[in-house]
Design brief:
The chain is an alpha/beta fold. The chain has 2 domains: 121 residues, Chitobiase, domain 2 (2-Layer Sandwich); 322 residues, TIM Barrel, CATH 3.20.20. It is 32% helix and 19% strand. It contains 15 helices and 17 strands. Helix 3 runs parallel beside helix 5 and helix 7 runs parallel beside helix 8. The model has no long low-confidence stretch (mean pLDDT 98). Bound molecules: acetamide. Acetamide binds next to loops. Its EC number is 3.2.1.52.
Length: 484
Amino acid sequence: MIPQPTAQQALPDETFTLQPDATIGIADSSAQPIADRFAAQLRRSTGFELPVQEGTGTITLSTDGAESLGAEGYELRADASGVTVTAATTEGLFRGVTTLRQLLPAKAEANSEQEGPWEIAGTTISDFPRYGYRGVMLDVSRHFFTLDQVKHFIDLVSLYKINRLHLHLSDDQGWRIQVDSWPRLTEYGGSLQVGGGTGGYYTKTEYAELVQYAAEHYITVVPEIDTPGHTNAALASYPELNKGDQAPELYTETEVGFSSFAIDKDVTYEFLDDVFREVAEQTPGELLHLGGDEAHSTPHSEYLAFVPQAAELVVKHGKRVMGWHEIADGSLPAGTVVQYWGTEDPKAQVLAQKAVEQGATLVLSPANRAYLDMKYHEETPLGLQWAGLVSVEQSYSWNPATLVPNVPASAIDGVEAPLWTETLDDLEKVEFMTFPRLPGIAELGWSQESALDWTTYRDRLAEQGPRWEVLGVNFYRSPEIDWR
Ligand code: ACM
């Protein structure tokens, strides 16, 4: 199982077998959507009717208990008489059902009827996460991914108890979210992508559907509008945002660090006020990410003046600021979350420490560990390698509590695995870079420190292979793993 639960015990003489007359019981109606979704999947693969009913069932889902395990915690028991999943919240129940899916045979994930038996070895589990932030980032700017593609990505990452989806919605190559007050951002700024092909963007209706779909998987969307660099798409759409009022051409290559908003113009902040307002209106989550990375074309003194002004606009619209670690060089509003993307670079570590000294918390995305777009090895046909080659072991074998020196464990909110898409233009390529590394980052975010061990993780990861085969996931069959 991945992530490894906090506590699990075998019930050696017990086996649960799902029979054709099985039922799914819900203790109260709040569990109905979770039960319906779970039942729908099991009906497809087992061919059983699996009615969802009030009260107890063969499998009972309850939100009345396990209070001590927190909002995402749950208890699960499978024995010869049935299965119960109990949590204090629907979120915890969802995480518990995610575990139940992994306890069932891999073919339970199939979309056509399969042969049983549908057995679970008797077990009791008591589980809760180490960290509250367990994220994945998808760069939809370098290459655009449609609503349906992002939904499929959500389906897959939610299997590993990921609870944040950071969407990198703007960059030099494309602006991907509708902003009514600045319509050329999408009409023009979203029209292309890396390589010069047709880009795209999410209308407000589509974006709302995406946020809702993520919420149904207990995933909160963290939207990112990258500033003041990585802004060519916006600069190309509106000349007034440029120093000198001259709009550049749209950009479809993959250099970084050449674009910057005009820091000393009022219109820049009027623009950000509108953009952050409209994005915040579509964001039920607390965080709005303002980027702040690689502003190599913004003079540093101007950068230091810009960040607090941009941050204030995020706060004005009711959101907490999130940003890449460079933003910690200036003063940050209370409640800021700083995303560390350094390697072992002391300059990046100093910025992370500076963030924590100001009271910010950290989400850890070390590029040489957690970046899903780094090549696995020299010959990997996709991806980049500026942060090094990132094998499955390299991505798993680190400790979030000690990654950045001189930072207290209490300052770590969690981990995130970013997937940049300069070289990735379809979902198969996204899957190839995401699997099998994402489950390891998800485990670093969920499982207790004492459970983290590469040797046993390798074996558990091997067991995921048959699931991905059933699900049609184009995963990289790394020779580090003895795939089944
Ligand atoms: C980054 O990789 N530029 C955050």
